[in-house]
């Protein structure tokens, strides 16, 4: 029997996953992507978050037939369906610790490794030690109980049992974490109550309907790009850029900066399409289009955006894993951050500290001011990405980093040097021009955050299907068709998260199909007007702020009275 068709047991998959092997289930086959993970244009993390899981739907909607054919070359067996998803190791808080240990042992010689024995998983070791300690305490308790009942076995000298001393800071941390856990559990209960059942049969039916919907998208040609629409888009972009140049020529500098900001805001919609290969469908062509728009025209790294956005689409609104919502200490849309969490994307612990206690209670009022200046942060993140090893770990797409570096340098030469430094006459005008052009793009950042920041972040477990989670954590913006140019497709984020490669000019038709899918499956389709959507986000920010206020007030009360525990 061919190794590709042999049946692989769940125990063997668990063993491979435990050993750090990137194995993924796709259409009943086991894919071992160890030879391909470092050449995956979407980055390593996108695969690591699917390890041990049935990633059939994710693979089908994110990849072209050519890419899928490449992946299926790595099949080495079949599994019995339905598959029970495992928790990917990267979602464990100890993942990076264990990874560092594996790398260290791999660097040792065979003799050294055999001398030291098998590597021990730190989490398992902690559990073993904990069990031994608990067992020892139980033995002491049983022994002391017997002694109390038998006077002859009482100790000759009374000994005082020492209890470990807990510092005020440690007690504060424990109480804070317990409070966060209670809030998380409450949100999980709400999620289970308000959504379709998580039992296997219900979720299987949802997946079946979702795959039928995907086929309907294909049959109606919704994956086909309407290039005439981009012709209209180009006219609008050209008019905005011409207005910027004309007002600059007549020295209406601030007015000129407004049109430059509008140009940036509008043209980035096309960069978003290109990042998802929604224009030509060709990786090279769409990457160059995206890099030209984002890096050359706007100074923003399309590579950084894709590296974080690919992960965002797979683990939407998961606090520990979705980089798009990891904005501590300025914003928190989930009680999870109160515990302090390790980001699997950044390999960095976001601590909950005094700055969070001060800023988060006022985040509702900081939302719009920070969104107005968010573009400056994107510059920083873009350069940080291009200078990091992650930008070089793209296998066959290695050349994209060099293209981005050239385009980004060109942007800063044209905008920073020739325009701001050489053309604008005074420092006051330079500062005003830069600020105004960047403030105008605030609407884009509001549009980006609107679709997720007001939505749940709770994890309902491994049985929740891909479409169910995407619709639960994503909001659409309701608007008339004539306003589609203003929102640029970002108003259809729920539809987009279900079918990310569909060109945005086809998303309005896709919305009609998704509404019918929602009615059939019972999954709620969240769709609000732009103003109401903003209210939803602000309400969520205020909800978390209120949680933090309660926690801080309790901690102050505990410090003043000496009581322990949140009430």
TrEMBL record:
GO molecular function: metal ion binding; oxidoreductase activity, acting on paired donors, with oxidation of a pair of donors resulting in the reduction of molecular oxygen to two molecules of water
GO CC aspect terms: membrane
Residue ranges crossing the lipid bilayer per the database entry: 237-263, 283-305, 365-384, 405-421, 427-446
Residue ranges occupied by any Cytochrome b5 heme-binding domain in the UniProt entry: 5-80
Keyword list, A-Z: Heme, Iron, Lipid metabolism, Membrane, Metal-binding, Oxidoreductase, Sphingolipid metabolism, Transmembrane, Transmembrane helix
Coiled coil (UniProt feature): none
Chief place of localization: membrane
Family: Belongs to the fatty acid desaturase type 1 family.
Protein's name in the database: Delta 8-(E)-sphingolipid desaturase
